[in-house]
């Protein structure tokens, strides 16, 4: 699964983007860090909208994404 361009750019804001490939799935994990505060994610018609503090990121989900979630400041996109 490829990391959307908009997510690759969030590392300039102090976030860490990592990908994990497993035998039967792939995961994109974005760690916004402890200073990000509350993070919310909403998915509308294949577009993920992530709000953290006073910043908002929007990006098209990869076609093979099956789940998007946020927990403890980490956004996870699972194939």
Structural class: mainly beta
**Main beta-sheet strand count, sense and barrel state:** 4 strands, antiparallel
For the biggest β-sheet, the strand order reads 1-2-7-6
CATH class, named Mainly Beta
Low-confidence stretches: none
Q: And the CATH topology?
A: Immunoglobulin-like
> Which percent bin holds the helix content?
under 10%
> How large is the share of residues in beta strands?
over 45%
- The CATH architecture classification is Sandwich
Using the CA coordinates, give the radius of gyration. 12 Å
Shape: globular
Question: For the terminal residues, how far apart are their CA atoms?
Answer: 7 Å
- Mean pLDDT across residues: 86
Give the SSE string: HEEEEEEE
* Structural domain count: 1
Count of helical stretches: 1
Strand tally is 7
Organism: Halostagnicola larsenii XH-48
Protein name: Hsp20/alpha crystallin family protein
Pfam families: DUF7127
């Amino acid at each position: 699964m490829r990391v959307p361009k908009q997510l690759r750019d969030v590392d300039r804001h102090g976030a860490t983007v990592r990908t994990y490939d497993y035998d039967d799935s792939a995961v994109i994990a974005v760690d916004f860090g402890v200073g990000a505060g509350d993070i919310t994610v909403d998915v509308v018609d294949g577009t993920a909208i992530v709000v953290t503090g006073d910043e908002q990121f929007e990006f098209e989900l990869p076609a093979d994404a099956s789940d998007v979630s946020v927990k403890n400041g980490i956004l996870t996109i699972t194939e």
